[in-house]
Amino acid sequence: MASSLRSAILRHIRVPVTQSLALNGSRLATVRSMSSHGDDHLDKQAVIDRVLDVVKSFPKVDPSKVTPDVHFQKDLGLDSLDNVEIVMALEEEFKLEIPDKEADKIDSCHLAIEYVHNHPMAS
């Protein structure tokens, strides 16, 4: 719990870092930079590819029917329990927790892609 909280905080802060460069003991310059924990957000195409891979790997799904706009129940014939299992697989794939209230709304690849792409903790 503590390590996940620490990781969550560190992803969203920038810490100034100062370094002194030295040559033969004499100080040449001071370099100041900022950490970039928040700059590693997933690009949308990577999210699309990974979401589609998760859905295609689900045992009850015909991979040839999976597109970015496919609906889990209407197009793939999955039931609500299958929907929950796919959301859990997405949580594992992207290392995030989706609250039940939000998970209930994710019923298509499109909504899964949008949720993950807009989630700051997705990795």
Automatic annotation (TrEMBL):
Keyword Lipid biosynthesis assigned: yes
Major place of residence: mitochondrion
Pathway: Lipid metabolism; fatty acid biosynthesis
Keywords: Electron transport, Fatty acid biosynthesis, Fatty acid metabolism, Lipid biosynthesis, Lipid metabolism, Mitochondrion, Phosphopantetheine, Phosphoprotein, Respiratory chain, Transit peptide, Transport
Entry annotated with the keyword Transport: yes
Annotated GO CC locations: mitochondrion
Subcellular localization: Mitochondrion
Annotated InterPro entries: ACP, ACP-like_sf, PP-bd_ACP
Location of the Carrier domain: 45-120
Gene Ontology MF terms in the entry: acyl binding; acyl carrier activity
NCBIfam families the record matches: acyl_carrier, PRK00982.1-2
Function per UniProt: Carrier of the growing fatty acid chain in fatty acid biosynthesis. May be involved in the synthesis of short and medium chain fatty acids. Accessory and non-catalytic subunit of the mitochondrial membrane respiratory chain NADH dehydrogenase (Complex I), which functions in the transfer of electrons from NADH to the respiratory chain.
Family statement: Belongs to the acyl carrier protein (ACP) family.
Subunit structure and binding partners: Complex I is composed of at least 49 different subunits.
Protein name: Acyl carrier protein
